[in-house]
Amino acid sequence: MEMMTSRERVLTALDHREPDRVPASIWCTVDAYKMIRKNLGLEVKDRYPVGSTTWTQDVSAEEDVVEKLGADLIRINVSPPGGVGFREIEGGLLVDEWGVVRKRVEYKGGSYLDIVKYPLENATVRDLEDYPWPDPADPAVTDGLMERAQWLRKNTPFAILLQCGRGGIFEQAKYLRGYAKIFEDFVGEEEFIRALFNKLLQIEKEFNRVGLEAAGEFVDVVRMSPEDLASENQTFCSPSMFKQIILPYYRESFDYTKTLFHRKNPNGKIQFHSCGAVSYPFMEGLLEAGMDVYDACEVKVKEESRPVSFKQKFGERLSFLGAIDVQWTLPFGKPEDVRNEVRERIKEMASGGGYILSSSHRITPDMPFENIAAMYEAVREFGKYPIR
Amino acid sequence: MEELKRVAEKVEKGKHLEVPEEVRKALDKGIPPYDILISGLQAGLAVIGERFKRDECFIPEVLLSARAMHAGIDLLRPLLAQAGTEPFAKIVLGTVKDDLHDIGKNMVGMMLEGSGFRVVDIGINVPADRFAEVVQKEGASILAMSALLSTTMPYLKTTIDALKEKGIRDRVKVLVGGAPVTEEYAMAVGADGFAPDAARAVDKAKELLNIRA
User: Fold this and answer.
1) Within-domain flag for A79
2) d(CA A25, CA A10)
3) Mutating which of A187, A243, A245, A279 best tests the B interface, going by the most B Cβ atoms within 10 A?
4) Residue A292's domain spans which residues?
5) Is any Cβ of chain B less than 8 angstroms from the Cβ of A117?
6) Is the ipTM reported for this complex over the cut 0.85?
7) Which chain B residue's Cα is nearest to A180?
8) How many structural domains compose chain A?
9) If you count residue pairs, one on A and one on B, with CB atoms under 8 Å apart, how many are there?
């Protein structure tokens, strides 16, 4: 087959047809990004613009890195209101644009931010009205976004993924309300849950609106705010609770975003993220709500929820991004283990298109660079169609 | 007995406001506190634990039932102490250093306590030396540790090494869990047992101590 450009490769795959080879993408934390740039012999800056979600410290990898790794999909994102993700308060604690208070915890090569205060833990419905919510209309949110997207479309061969939402609905509710509390609310405080979800839905929609109005015409995929729906073993709630309490908000969010997006790009796709062992009934619901692409396809979960199982069950209607294990293979395996996993995953996921290879979550700085390089080399080696 | 059945049912349904009333009724009938604990509160939570293992109920239901059970235990605790009823064994529980995650650990704690263990929860971000120190001080039979990140998993081994250095490794069984932890990893770092969720942590704890119940 004649060689395709990166964008053709991605669009063909997302159209459920086989491109010349399996496309690849990159998702990483800022600490990992610096490590990767250093290893690629590229200049490393002290700071990078805040990525798609403030607290995760991820960063949208620039075109030089995407090109050197041989990836095909580049990410861009809106900025937090005010342009700055965190403000520092007493005791070195950090407060994000949602008012969630976090503490920095260091590990080998980087740090992550864990919650020390859930600002709505004891809130009532009335408190939600007065809460200082992030403002998607703040001009900093889309500052430079249109220019960046247009430049990338004109000057690079990559497909473009845009994330506008900066927190999500169920996900952000967990961070605002507290993990244990939100699950108790599901059973006892439905009125509160609905009021909170509704508020977060309006914000998610508004972030998507301003982002798409600025850059929609240059974008191929819109990634909704990530929403973790499951642990390693099972979903966070029953399928019926999911369908009654959570899914209606996703449906409205997907509908609204897709309608706006398709005015700018009729072929644009909606991507949704969850970690963990999401089950068939959840996937059915998400598909019916309008999900086109599912990321990041965690590998070490129970059998029904593994990427290969979803591919077999939903592959004709759904594309996948991710599925190279970040829990063992990338941080602890050898380059040979990474190669073997890439080869196996391609065999499982790539037939008929519908698969973009990437790590099954963010790349973190404790992953040896040799393993990261091995992942992108292996997709070039084993990813050529037809897959054998 | 009708009263115990009702206590169990209220726990099963997660009715934390109604459990104390049912417990009081059982006490008024002259049912010994220990029986109320075992055949009422724990029996109710056990039903939920089994359903959780079979994916028939989920975290919200388990949390509500655990809360309901605790409402009953709070009432029984002074009476149990008076009667000199001993729990199965003492378990020191915590999340390893640099790891602040606690929902999974708390669920494990509630299920263990609800199954008759005495749980000493020393919280999150616990350094290896502190685990070893508390295990020694409390004379615990089991150390249960959780690590939720691939970056904090290595502290499971660091903590087991700290037990060895203190010369108390063979006096305590080590049970580990947490999202990225697997059976193979648990064995490789020298733990005695691994559990993928709270319900199975209870089974494993009993197995490690040869408790048949």
Assistant:
1) yes
2) 10
3) A187
4) 6-83+125-382
5) no
6) no
7) B103
8) 1
9) 72
CATH number of the domain within which A31 lies: 3.20.20.210
Start-end of CATH 3.40.50.280 domains in chain B = 90-208
Measured in angstroms, the CA of A105 and the nearest CA of chain B are apart by: 6
Banded pLDDT at A159 (limits 50, 70, 90): very high
Domain assignment present for residue A251? The answer is: yes
Q: What is the band of B213 on the pLDDT scale with cuts at 50, 70, 90?
A: low
Q: Do B182 and A300 touch (CB under 8 A)?
A: yes
Cβ–Cβ of A187/B100 closer than 8 Å? no
β-partners of residue B126 are B96
**Residue A232 confidence class, pLDDT cut points 50, 70, 90:** confident
The pTM score is 0.89
Q: Which of A187, A234, A327 sits opposite B150 (nearest CB)?
A: A327
The chain B residues in contact with chain A (CB within 8 A) are 14, 55, 57-61, 63-64, 67, 98-101, 103-104, 106, 125, 149-152, 179-180, 182, 196-197
CATH architecture classification, B90-208: 3-Layer(aba) Sandwich (3.40)
Question: May I ask the CATH class of domain B2-83?
Answer: mainly alpha
Tokens 């102490």: give the residue: B81
Judged by a CB distance cut-off of 8 A, whether residue A190 touches chain B is no
Q: Is residue A90 domain-resident?
A: no
**The pair of three-digit structure tokens given for residue B188, joined into one six-digit string:** 């490789």
Q: Round to the nearest angstrom and report the end-to-end CA distance of chain A.
A: 15
Q: Which of A179, A181, A361 is the best residue to mutate to test the B interface, defined by the most B CB atoms within 10 Å of its own CB?
A: A179
pLDDT in tens, A52-89: 999 999 999 999 999 999 999 999 999 999 999 999 99
Whether residues A235 and B57 touch (CB distance < 8 A) is answered with no
Contact residues, chain B, for A112 at CB < 8 Å: 149, 151
B151 min Cα distance to partner chain A (Å) = 7
User: 3-state SS string over chain B?
Assistant: CHHHHHHHHHHHCCCCCCHHHHHHHHHHCCCCHHHHHHHHHHHHHHHHHHHHHCCCCCHHHHHHHHHHHHHHHHHHHHHHHHHCCCCCCEEEEEEECCCCCCHHHHHHHHHHHHCCCEEEECCCCECHHHHHHHHHHHCCCEEEEECCCCCCCHHHHHHHHHHHHCCCHHHCEEEEECCCCCHHHHHHCCCCEECCCHHHHHHHHHHHCCCCC
